[in-house]
Design goal:
Blueprint (H helix, E strand, L loop, with lengths): L3 H8 L3 H9 L6 H14 L11 E5 L6 H18 L2 E5 L9 E5 L11 E4 L9 E5 L1 H14 L4 E6 L5 H12 L3 E6 L1 H7 L9 E4 L2 H14 L8 E5 L3 E2 L2 E2 L1 E4 L2 H14 L5 E3 L2 E3 L10
Parallel strand pairs: 1-2, 1-3, 3-4, 4-5, 5-13, 6-7, 6-8, 8-9, 9-12
Antiparallel strand pairs: 10-11, 12-14
Helix pairs in contact: 1-2, 1-3, 4-9, 5-6
Length: 287
């Protein structure tokens, strides 16, 4: 069966360029588009399922929550089985033995000439499409939740570059007269709670790893959640045996969408509106 990689080789372009030509996401030159269209016609390419011998690679970062990871991998495996593909799981990019790859952020994209779907925020590397939480909707919901509880001094703990989630939280809190301070890594989180500073009344964690940093620092200082500090996270329901108020999309939903996209060659991004679930870690701002 002809794949995107076959079309790219025939046209003398990257797989990502073929994806952009098919999806219309980015402009490409008329000459390049003509070469791609000629190759598609010459090879008889049709977007569809991979042959049964295909292998779908899944690249994971090392610090994912095990419960989330289990649900995600089970759904990928089930979708792959339905589509006739085996699944190869790795914690590092693999170039060989795979016909398509699902990469979970912030893991790196393998340097392979195969279709790649990224789950999570984009990092500038080529990909067929992206499957993720709608980060603007998540930020608006998170900001409103905290603002309605009276929080105006908020820190935003993160490891990866600031994105639409942070910008939406900041915009909502800012519209209520508040401030959102980004804290990248453990040292900045520690400084935010240092003696003599204006201690924040709420913390937003951008992911599970950032949440770990926050909970560690709060425990070290003897600050109670939510009596002293409210905590809310994106995509992390439980960390260090604690249930946390969070904005989430089911890992099953993300996994199925990613696997179906990369196995079919469908280049449309898929963004899902998250659900806010209160687990008792946010409360009204302390007086």
């Amino acid at each position: 069966m002809v794949t995107l990689a076959d079309v790219a080789r025939h046209a003398g372009v990257a797989v990502s360029t073929v994806s952009y030509a098919l999806s219309g996401k980015r402009s490409i030159s008329a000459r390049t588009r003509e070469r791609i269209e000629h190759s598609i016609t010459a090879l008889g390419y049709r977007a569809g399922r991979l042959r049964r011998t295909a292998v779908l690679g899944v690249v994971l970062p090392a610090d994912l929550d095990p419960v989330w990871t289990g649900g995600f991998l089970a759904a990928v495996a089930a979708t792959g089985r339905d589509r006739g593909a085996d699944v190869l799981i790795s914690f590092e990019p693999r170039r060989r033995h795979v016909g398509a790859v699902v990469v979970v952020s912030p893991a790196s994209v393998p340097a392979a000439d195969v279709p790649v779907v990224r789950v999570g925020p984009a990092d500038g590397t080529p990909h067929l499409c992206r499957v993720d939480v709608n980060r603007v909707a998540a930020g608006v919901e998170c900001g409103r939740h905290l603002a309605n509880l009276g929080h105006r001094n908020v820190i935003f703990a993160h490891r990866t570059p600031l994105d639409d989630f942070h910008r939406a939280v900041r915009a909502v809190i800012g519209s209520r007269g508040g401030v959102v301070r980004p804290c990248a890594g453990a040292a900045e989180v520690e400084r935010a709670f240092a003696v003599g500073t204006r201690v924040p009344t709420a913390v937003v964690a951008a992911d599970g790893a950032a949440l770990d940093l926050v909970l560690t620092e709060l425990d070290r200082r003897g600050l109670r959640v939510p009596r002293d500090v409210s905590v809310i996270a994106l995509g992390a329901e439980t960390r260090r045996a604690r249930a946390v108020t969070s904005l989430t999309v089911s890992p099953t939903t993300l996994a199925r969408a990613a696997a179906e996209a990369v196995l079919s060659g469908d280049a449309r991004d898929r963004l899902f509106t998250p659900r806010l679930t209160s687990r008792g870690t946010t409360a009204r701002r302390p007086l």
